[in-house]
Amino acid sequence: MSDRYAVIGNPIGHTKSPLIHGLFAQECGQDMEYVAIEGPLEPSEAFANTVHDFIAPDGRGMNVTAPFKLHAFDMADERSERATLAGAVNAMKFENGRIIAENFDGVGLLRDIEVNLHQPMAGKRVLILGAGGAVRGALLPFIGARPAQLVVANRHLDKAQALIEQVDAGDSLIARGYPDLESMGAFDLVVNATSASLSGELPPVPPSVFSADGTAYELAYGKGLTPFLQLAKNAGIRNIADGVGMLVEQAAEAFAWWRGVRPQTRAVIDRLTVPLE
Ligand code: ATR
What we know:
Blueprint: E1 3-9, H1 17-28, E2 32-38, H2 46-55, E3 59-64, H3 69-75, E4 78-79, H4 81-86, E5 91-95, E6 98-102, H5 105-116, E7 125-129, H6 133-144, E8 149-153, H7 157-165, E9 173-176, E10 187-192, E11 210-218, H8 227-234, E12 239-241, H9 244-259, H10 266-272
Parallel strand pairs: 1-2, 1-3, 4-6, 7-8, 7-10, 8-9, 10-11, 11-12
Antiparallel strand pairs: 3-5, 5-6
Helix pairs in contact: 1-9, 5-6, 5-9
Bound molecules: 2'-monophosphoadenosine-5'-diphosphate.
């Protein structure tokens, strides 16, 4: 029987993960099956029971999406440092009766920016909007990329402040409220990691944060020109991207972790890309 993998979420109908991992498996010649599972929302222990039912007899790993990233964190036997800082898990490996937990969202995002979009972060000024789970996942990988300055901006400044205090990154990592950004000049890279775009909203970011030769990155994907990307475009930025590359790159990280072979991502990204205009 093939090794079995799955993505678990609720709702899960929209997921692209079975398609992505199916293409990776084909390309890398891996004998595996990857399915989507709609996880139970209640009672609270039902999620863990579903995972255990999948593990026995031949479940090898799972991706985890909303709303279960914290449930997966709680039930893991071992967690990576980035999963611990994120407080959330997006991939699990089942090995020798243990559940090992990872979070590849941040590394996938970093890889998309640096490798696919050719925008290395070292020495750059980077602004990330939000202070929720998505930013918690991105923080360690971003710091590891050595930007000259990394500013975390959030509506509730205390939340951004509490987040950066968990990380030892010196003076280059700072938290700010949106009004403070007016006087901070332009950034080389602005990443919208708030959930604002999911409801068609715009974080209150001043257009002065964008520089014409910089990059604007929207974590949401498949939503076309979101209000954030529209603002960036109006400010003269040509280099704009949504999170489709991050989606595929985090999947490639999980695949490599599970199977020991790293798939190519370009063709899969091209296949899933929805034009921004
Ligand atoms: P996720 O896991 O997707 O990051 P989350 O943990 O609920 O979701 O965090 C959502 C983030 O988006 C928060 O930083 C939130 O800001 P606050 O902490 O100040 O509430 C941010 N957010 C949501 N809607 C927003 C909006 N319309 N404008 C600006 N920020 C918004």
